[in-house]
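Q: What would this chain look like folded?
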Amino acid sequence: MREFIHDCFIDALGMPPSDEQIDTVINNMPAELVSLVEKLGENNAEVREKIYVWVNENINDFL
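A: My prediction, written as structure tokens:
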């Protein structure tokens, strides 16, 4: 999941996140997303889409 979050930052900002920023994203991910990851796996297309949307909507919180 770290690599995917890394890619989300690059798509949104054109620059990679720090390890601390990735940790912050993971630690602040909504419970429903965490449950979906646990249920379907982090490589599931639906999971990736939901994470991508959530990260992009909240990207300013992680800068």
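The helical segments are 2-13, 19-28, 31-40, 45-58.
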